[in-house]
Design brief:
The complex is a heterotrimer of chains A (380), B (101) and C (308). Chain A is mainly alpha-helical and 380 residues long. Chain A contains 17 helices and seven strands. In chain A, helix 14 packs antiparallel against helix 15. Chain C has two domains: 109 residues, no CATH class; 191 residues. Classes of the chains: A mainly alpha (380), B alpha+beta (101), C alpha+beta (308).
Chain lengths: 380, 101, 308
Amino acid sequence: MQAAAESPAAAVRRSLTDLLRAPDGVAALPARDLDLTLRLARRVRLLGRLAERLQRRGLLAALPPAAREQLESALVVVDARARAARWELDRLLRALRSRREMRVVALKGSAYLLAGLPNAAGRVFADVDLLFAEAELAEAESLLVAHGWRGTKLSAYDQHYYRAWTHELPPLVHDEREVEADLHHNIVPRMGRLKPSGALLLARARPIPGTLFERLADPDLVLHAMTHLMFDSEMADALRDLVDIDDLLRHFSAADPEFWDALWARAEELDLARPAFYALRYAHALLGTPVPATVLRRSQRGAPVRAVVWIMDRLVPRALFPPHPDAPSRVAAIARFWLYVRSLWIRMPPLLLVRHLGYKFYVRRIRGARPIAAETRVAN
Amino acid sequence: MSDATAGVTTHWRARPAHEFVSSQLGADYAVYHRPSGRTHFLNAAAADLLERVLLQPRTAAAAAAELAAGEGAPGSAEFVAVVAESLSRLEYLGLIERCEP
Amino acid sequence: MRVVGELGQAGFAERLRGQGLGVRLGPFDVKVRSGIAAIEAPLYGLYRDYPLLDDERTFSMHLQLTAARAFPRLDRATVRLLVDGRAPHEDLPRGQALAVLEWGINLVIALRAHSLLMLHSGAVERGGSVMLFPAWPGSGKTTLCAALVHRGWRLFSDEFGLVRPSTIEVLPIPRPMPLKNESIDVIRAFAPEAELGPAIPNTRKGTIAHVKVPAASIRASAHSAAVRWIVFPQWVAGASLRCEEMSKADAFLMLATNAFNYEMLGEAGFAAVHRLVTAAACYRLVYSDLAEAVRLLNEMAANDASGS
């Protein structure tokens, strides 16, 4: 084989790895490479993050206009979505605590935003996620409905299926706004193999200073992100979800040297060792997360058989990096591939896999043409 | 449709002034509410409520009296009812809140 | 700077099919690839005056038209629009490929360009000042723009009023103007010198034909200008000409609700719309005779020039 020009897949991988490991370097890229980086950043929902970083470093102004305008536009979207999320949280809290001082725990993006965690910067917020004690979920739902929230239109069958299968209620939306509120009582599907206890999570939840919200304890917050990556993540979001995990791990471990030990102990306590094993492994390998060797060794306790790990090592990077934007798109093949990867991760028995496929189909059909969905595919 | 019905003793107050940007357009006002990102169009009376009358806690009746005094016109029970409804609407939009007296 | 016409039609087609055609459309540098032979000639006609760009740059967007086939039958020949390799909407009949490209560019602008306040509006310029025609049902803004542009006005856009929020200046983005149904004949009659692309039947908006942008408007697309008039047009069959001042409050409401991204911009959008309606004279225009309306608007511009 003669010396070949870089393959499209290799170009994608290099471009995104450079973006994640050395974002400031993006500002110095030749215009053509910058073009590919921006297209890819947009595809993996990291354009806002890049924009925020370059703005903070004072590197935006010197960029060519077409690049600068795209990044400035991304910042406008970031601000608008953060504003919408904050307002929605404000309104939700007001409704939920209108009768008594109900505990409301913010999850995922909502928690990052309220707590000012580093991965909130440049994030494009979408839904709001809240956690309740299982016994209080019905009350929470009825309070919101009384204050103007509505469920999306579901048949009785779909409602039952949604409530039985997932760990959340069908999403609620307020009459006047578009942000969806997802109310959870746990962080993995009820019928999944893993059974972390919602009560254990709530027991360690802590207040978010300056707000009336709570959030999960540091290790639990990270474990939730890891679980989400394995169970809920759309393929287009998987890399960003891994970046979230990397951010959080660096942030918490820098503040507390005991954090790593606490993380792994909690992973085993909550029966989340498998997602934690994978997340640590790929964050370390692909993003350079400084996971101590001792922790990596210990996390092997959550590993599947070596043959599966070997397969995953080859499949996961392929899944996390998107196809080159000029390459022919094979959407259905890609979606099937991701489902296959995930099914291996969580070792779903074939019957459950069929149901899982059905669940995702229902979710897409139920949620229908969300206002955000079409937009985000080409915009964010 | 929303909260528990307000009673005669319910007190209202506008959200802090720094949350609003207001511009007069002829006889009406366009008001941008920063936290919600929404723009509202208010007539002079509603703008008066937001920018002056509700700077401190008032009941619906007291707010109506203040508004009427500003107009140089006597209030009426009907007027109080209209004001009460406006207060409900402003609360629903997130521009004012119930508070302690 | 090179223009597309220097490629010649053969070179143009080769670009489209190969590395892609880079063109500057106002503030946007656009890359287009296409495997659809039938659009090459008409697209060349409409695009020949635009600045031609090489690949050593960052583009604002990458679009691609591909020939897709729903089922392997000739009568189901379709075109697929891809933006960065993904389809934002379903495939459409291949005969509409030209319209699909133009709408596709509009879509991507509207979804992405949030460093600007994007009004859904026509915009033309005369004597250094811009007249905006915000869109609302029955406005006929595209027909009005197409007419004015052949009576001494410069085209900024028939679809997008791109406003820089910090300065409220309007940025030109002159692009082929899609006329619908009867308007095609109206403009052919009003401006026989106008160059039109092919008539595209059976689109969801009826029959469409694009008016080519006069070269002078394209050459001037780096020059922005301030808004002096905001005119809300309404074509009503048989109506007599009527032009009335509009209240600032009404103008604000109409302009904000006719913007693509007013809410997205938050306070900057609010401030920009306020400044626009305050700085400009705002009118409602009712008309049925295009020539009459054009004369009135020309007079408005002339009076303004001499009066100020």
